[in-house]
Each structure stands twice: as structure tokens, then as C-alpha cells.
């Protein structure tokens, strides 16, 4: 059994990774413990409001890299430890059995060398699948610069793999994570995309990353605007076939003259996720959401901002508007849109009906008519034109500006 | 007229047939305040009549019995009325009605079913097994709705080698998987002898829970929204 101290060190070094999703894999139990639960499952929530779905842990926090923002970077004075594959496997099995977790999210600092680290990660997941007969969810972090064959082998055992882009531009990466390069992250992503395609086309037996690939970017540690970040995101979804892009608002755990001293606003992170959802589920393209050198409004959500720029398309009649248009109404989410589609088959919907159906009308009423009746109106002007408050883009050299982004309460 | 029944599906369907032509019918399986002058009837399940009603409902809507089962599991006080109005609507329209969300009765039923389904989903995550000395797993729960047997297939599929018992301590019943079969049984209280390592694993889990949190980003309201306090009772990470 792993010691509490070791668990503490390896967890605290892993906790800034945001991804914790356990969805997308329907792996069956093949006589052992566990299976995939395609809908995903949250097992607990921590006081920071995040869910615990997977056991998120590093195999080692003993790193040879010197990424400026990272608490485990080589020149940091922190306690170092490395777990054995057996310790990790034991932890997963006994946590899983008690229904504490949905699976494992295994990552590691670059210990000794990229190849050595990737070998140890591979060894752990292989052991877990073959010796321990574990069929639950495994998310494996890929190590940049590791050998292609190790990556290919790991993909046979993991449900999902991810390479972290970390910073949204090559320039920032050079500055803050000098030993990583855009190519060292993108090359294995493309390799996995290619091989997953071949695996599917040839109809081979077994699994090859059933839950696909994801990545993560740190927001607010470097000066890229939202427009640039979201363009990168869109290309990752469309060209590299990623399932998710995670954004992690920067938390200053490390002090360095190249890094801001304050945390990036939670609101900015929230707006990026909203925009991300619009790209994936609401049929928006990034050009509709934000200009390349622009930032998302902190005042209104991105869908609302889009609607305000396109007032000529509104109001739409809820009884006749096509689904694509309903999805574009601020305040109407996917669930509400489908409810409206169902209910209007049987009756002509009024505002009272919408209220009864628990459709959030606070924003939506300004953009719709129900049975020809408009319910926005009087307060619309004031609501549309709030006091001039613009989101301030944090620059890594402008601490004054960064101060105002504290906690996102602008 | 107020129609009392025992909360079972059969008794509900029997009561449904009896009450059908009564415009002021109220069905109830709980404690109901009876107003002065109100008449009451106690309906006992009649197998033949219940089966007849069931067959008819299935002709009108294949999923109607599944919906009824879900509604009767609800812990909401007005669940009998909600179920009655919903089933009455199916009978009146002679077809599936679940999409007519602008109707009060359907809206109420949809909300009620959503709550039951959502709690099942939540419990799949929040339930905690305790390992007993024999290796069998024990999980106490006290859900809002009567759902402990609905949790069994999920755990049976992922833990086929471990017998387990999910104990609804509020309703004093248990859903059991004995390693081969599943069944439910009344169970008032249970005494569990912990396995040698159980306490140590619980401590490791508590340690993990403390370590994975980012204290500088405290959002307690959000945590409680996702994981309401009433579910904390049997979670080791939330007990002192």
C-alpha cells in the first residue's frame, strides 16, 4: 500500500491538470474489475467546486524539465518522490472497488528521460489491464519527445490520451517551457489520430483510445488573446479530431519574473468554455464568436454577444424557428431547444407555457416571440447597453492590468 | 373521494380503474389530511384488474409502465397525484403524451421522473462501498427516492466477482447481489465487520481528497450544488 505522504506529494503535483472526464468509453468488463461508463460519472466534489471522477496522480514528480509555471520544475525546492507501478495499480483497484473513483488519470513529470518516463507509464497501464484485470477508465498523459513505438503501445491500453499544449503559441512555449516545442506535442497527437483511423478502417480487434484525445492550455500566463486561443481550439477539433480542449486559468504557484503574480480570472476561463461549447454543440464557427486579436466579453456570454451583433436575425418565433436557430437564442440551451421542439408539435406555445417548461426567460425573452407576442421590450435598452466595462487583457508585463482581472469580478 | 392504496403498482392500477369515472378523485399512498365530509376508500390490489389495466396502457404507450414505475418511486409528497394525472392523460388521449410538455400534468410528471433518474445517476457516483471481513461490499444509502434496486445492475456489471449489498437505511430495505443473483429484501439494520485494510484505504482516500483540492480557488456553493449535503452522510471524505 502506498504511503499517505507519497500519495500527498504525487496528488498535489497533479492537481492543476483540469481534465477529469470519464466519459466516452464503453469498455466492457472482461472478467475482472471495472468497465467503462460512457456517460461519465462524478464520484465526489472538492471545496474548489471541481469534480473527482478519476484518480488524478503523477507516477513521479521528479522532473528534468524547467517549465517556468510548473511547481515540479527541476530547479524548484520541493519534496520529490516516485511511485512504483504496483503502488499505483493497488491504489486504483482498492479505490475503484469502493466506488471512490471511475478510473485512473496517470501523468508524470519527465523523470530521467522522456523515453524512460513513457516506458514506466506504459508499464503501469499494461500491468493494470493484464495482471490486475482492470477494465475501468484510464486516461494517460503522453510525454513529449518519447519514442513513437511507446506511444502506439500505450494507446492499446488507455481509453484516452492527452498531450498538453500548455501555452497557446510557440513563442510563449519557448519563453516559459523551453524544453517543449509545439511540434513535440502536435506530432504524437497526429500520430495517434492517424493510427486510430487505420485501426478503425481495418476493423481490428481490441481497443485504440475509445475516448479519443484531449489537450489543455494555461490561460493568462502568457499574452495570447481569446481569439487566437479559440482559433487554435477550433483547428484542434476540426483537423486533429480532439474530443476536448481544456482551459486552466493560471494560478501563480511559482514566482518568476516572466510570470504574472496574480491568478487569471475565473470568468475568462468560464467564457472560453462557453465559446468552446458553442463550437462543439451549437453549430458556431470561431469567426462568428470573436475576432482573431479580440477577447471575449466578460459582461455577456459569447452567444449573447453574438446575438447583440446580429440583432437583425431576431426576434425568432419559438413555434416555427428551426432547431439551429433556437440553439442560437441566448438563454436557450440544447435541453430547452429540444423541449420546445417536442412541445410545439402539440400546441402553439405561449410565454406561460415556456415558463412552465422551465425555459430560462431572463435572457431569451428579448430574442423571441411566442405565438407572435414579444415579451422583451422596455428593459431591453438598459440591458443591452450596460455601463462601458471592457475586459482587460492581461499582459505578462502589465501587473496593473492584471490586478483588475483578480477573481474575474470585473 | 380519496382513494388510499399501498404504493404498489398493482394497487395503483386497481385504484386507477375504480377512480376513473370520479372527477374529484384523489389517489394517495401516504398520510393524507382528510377534510371534513370527505369520503375515503381503501383500495386493495386486484391482480386481474391490474393486469387488464396494464395491458391496456401498454397498447396505448409502450413505455407507460416504465414511467409509472419511475413515478411511484418518487419521494415527492404529491407523487400519487402526479402519477394519477399522467396516467389519466394517457388514457384520455389514447396515445403517448410525454412530449406534450406544455400540459401541466405532463410537465409535473416529466419533472418528477427527471428527479428520480437524476438521483440514480448521482448515487452511482456518491455511493461508497465498505469492504467487510468476508470480502463482500456494503453500501448504506438514504436517497430521496426509492431507488436502491435500480443501482444494482450498474455495480453488478463492473464488480462481478464481489457480492454486495446496498442498504436503504431510510426505507429499511436492501438490494443484494450475492455473486450470482440479485434480489431485494427488508433490512432494518446491519452490522458490518470491517476488513483488516478498510480503515487504511479510507484514510488514503481522505488524504487524496484533501490533496487534490486547490484551496486558493474555494467555491463551496458550487461544491454543495453538485453534491448536496444530504449525500455526505456515508462518504468517508466528508466525515470527520
What does this entry look like structurally?
The complex is a heterodimer of chains A (410) and B (240). Chain A is α/β, with parallel strands linked by helices and 410 residues long. Chain A folds into three domains: 1-162, Rossmann fold (3-Layer(aba) Sandwich), CATH 3.40.50; 163-299, 2-Layer Sandwich (Transcription Regulator spoIIAA), CATH 3.30.750; 302-384, no CATH class. Helix content of chain A is 37%, strand content 10%. Chain A is built from 16 helices and eleven strands. Chain A has helices at residues 4-12, 85-97, 114-130, 148-157, 170-176, 182-201, 226-238, 266-281, 286-289, 302-309, 323-326, 334-343, 351-356, 361-364, 380-384, 399-403, and strands spanning 44-45, 51-52, 54-58, 103-107, 137-141, 160-162, 213-219, 244-249, 316-317, 368-370, 373-374. In chain A, the strands form three sheets. In chain A, strands 3-4-5-6-7-8 form a six-stranded parallel beta sheet. A three-stranded mixed beta sheet of chain A has the order 9-10-11, with no helix packed on it. Chain A is globular, with a radius of gyration of 23 Å. Chain B has two domains: 2-119, no CATH class; 127-238, no CATH class. Chain B is elongated and about 60 Å long. Chain B starts with a strand and ends in a 14-residue tail after the last helix. In chain B, the strands form two sheets. A five-stranded mixed beta sheet of chain B has the order 4-5-6-7-8, with no helix packed on it. In chain B, strands 2-1-3 form a three-stranded parallel beta sheet. Chain B is of the alpha/beta class and 240 residues long. Chain B has helices at residues 9-19, 47-60, 64-73, 79-93, 104-126, 152-158, 198-212, 220-226; strands at residues 2-4, 26-28, 40-42, 130-131, 137-141, 164-168, 173-177, 182-186. In chain B, helix 3 (64-73) packs antiparallel against helix 4 (79-93). At the A-B interface, helix 1, strand 1, strand 2, helix 2 and helix 12 of A face helix 5, strand 4, helix 6, helix 7 and helix 8 of B.
